[in-house]
Task: structure prediction
Amino acid sequence: MEQHVKIGAITVRPEVRSGLQTGRWVVDIPSSLTGQRKRPSRSTKKKAVELARRLKRELENKQLGLTPTVRRTSKTFNDVVKEWVVKEGRRVQTRKKEEGSLRCDKDQLKPVCRFLGLYFIQDVSGDLMEDYQKVRLDAGMSPYTVNSEMATIKKILRWAIKKEWLVVLPEIESVPEPKIKYDIPTPSEIKKILNAILPSARTVVW
Result:
């Protein structure tokens, strides 16, 4: 069993259920820090450790009376998207972005805005993103489509951080994509294929 990691009073440990490790990692936050014990989990040890370190910094800053400079905003996700599209439109006009790329972004944002549009930008969380992923997968969208939409959402959220409308980027885990299997012919199969080709066409193949 892998060793637990201590980051201040916070412990990162493997998640165990029914006596077996699930493969996920738990960030164990004692009640002495937050008033109530909390145990969020992450898909990898690295992500769990990063979360623990961030939480430790935030708690230390709070104890010192330091708070994020980002103020609470009344902007919704729809509001931020509208301003982002205007900004990206200027990039198209100055040839820093292809018009087709912006058109693709806008198409991908249509279902996103239907789901997230009325949420305040600072309320967009990793859990909310998982809810969106489930809705899209249940609607028959492929993992590739969902992950592409998530990438566009990240563009919006990163810009919101630059504008100081959001403090940190929510953790957004990608949907597993099925691996594509390619059938590559063996040397003997390649030889049979070449032998089946008319001699006059073999030079073109080679």
User: Anything to note?
Assistant: The CA atoms of residues 126 and 170 lie 5 Å apart. The radius of gyration is 24 Å. Strands lie at 5-7, 10-17, 20-28, 41-42.
